Amino acid sequence: MKSHVRTLQIAFTYIGTIVGAGFATGQEILKFFTRYGHWAVLTILVSTILFIWLGTKMMVIARRIEAESYEDFNRHLFGDQVGSTISLFTMVILIGVNSIMLAGAGAIFQEHLGLHYQTGLILTLVGSYFLLKRGISGILQMNSLIVPLMLTLSLIIIFNTFQIPGAERFLFLETDRSIFGAWMSPLLYTAFNLGMAQAVLVPMARHTDDEKSLVWGGIIGGAGIGFMLIAAHFAMSSQMPGILLFEIPMGNIAVRLGTVVQTIYLLLIFLEIFSTFVADIYGVTMQLKQRIPVKPALITPILMLVCYLLSQFGFSSLLSVFYPIFGALSMVWAVMLLRTPWSTPPRIDSSSGSSRKGNSLVSIKPVTRK
């Protein structure tokens, strides 16, 4: 039973890490899948297979090489120098994304709850700080509560869409987009999201004792992401092309479901912002802990302060420049992950005289003659 619970925690954390605020609003799904019409179902299937395969592989390899952070994992893929550079760039992107998400949390409190913008920021930061004090177990428990709610809402959306005219349009929707763009979208979408998610998935895998739980967690989590993709695409396709005019497409879908569901959906967007913020701060903290001689108890508040300051001035324009670069880098990262074997050969560290194989260290002692 304990193994099954751990498997579900891993699966839910995988889903919760991928399904961020962009997913919740519907903009990501609309841009990467729905606007490609009848190709979208097949491309979502491709993306689901990649999430199952690459996500599981990343976690298994991270556990076997004992990667404490995503920087350790990138060094394994690219070598020390290139891997370190890529990890630094990833850190900049994660901090920038978190700043924008924090601003989004403040906007929710201001626009929908009638509270001050700064109140939303402060409450999010304080809640994140106390949850992060519990480490990876706090992230696992948080997603074990949030993700079932997300999956339930996806089921409600599917059942509601069946009852309206045009529900079958997702199979026959026409598009003027290129076929090349349609088939590149799932590759870019999966690579980009896994490149971001490694910040929490790698340290989570490192602290998982049972590899079987990781494998099944990756399979169930990847399938869950695919299910939520198809549910959102199914609902938005029935509203095409008018749905393209909305800033928050899924918000328009939620309005049709009544006040209760609309309130749950609003809460869900905030919780997804909150869970992604917590996970990314944890991942960046684990990386910085290896680079600077400062305790995580100090690193975490400093990171939060940086995100808070950036959320005041806006970072979206600068991030719009970095995003395409990170997207291209994520494709290279995914190819390297594909090429990396599941089994890891022993690595000899000449300076310490040890051989690393899988998740064990074998000490190599000099032979002494009596």
What's the total number of strands?
3
Total individual domains: 1
SSE run: HHHHHHHHHHHHHHEEE
As a whole number of angstroms, the C-alpha radius of gyration is 21 Å
Helix content: over 70%
CATH level 3 topology: Hydantoin permease
Transmembrane segments: 12-30, 36-54, 85-109, 115-132, 144-162, 182-202, 214-236, 264-285, 297-315, 321-338
Keywords: Membrane, Transmembrane, Transmembrane helix
Biased composition (Low complexity): 345-363
Protein name: Transporter
Q: Which labels suit this protein?
A:
370 residues; 14 helices; mainly alpha; globular; three-stranded antiparallel β-sheet; Hydantoin permease
Detailed description of the structure:
- It contains 14 helices and three strands.
- 74% of the residues lie in helices and 3% in strands.
- The longest helix is centred in the first third of the chain and has 33 residues, at 80-112.
- The radius of gyration is 21 Å and the shape is globular.
- Strands 1-2-3 form a three-stranded antiparallel sheet, with no helix packed on it.
- It has a single domain (2-362), classed as Orthogonal Bundle (Hydantoin permease).
- Residues 345-370 have low confidence and may be disordered.
- It has 370 residues and is mostly helical.
- Residues 345-370 are annotated as: Disordered.
- InterPro entries: YkvI-like.
- Keywords: Membrane, Transmembrane, Transmembrane helix.
- It comes from Paenibacillus etheri.
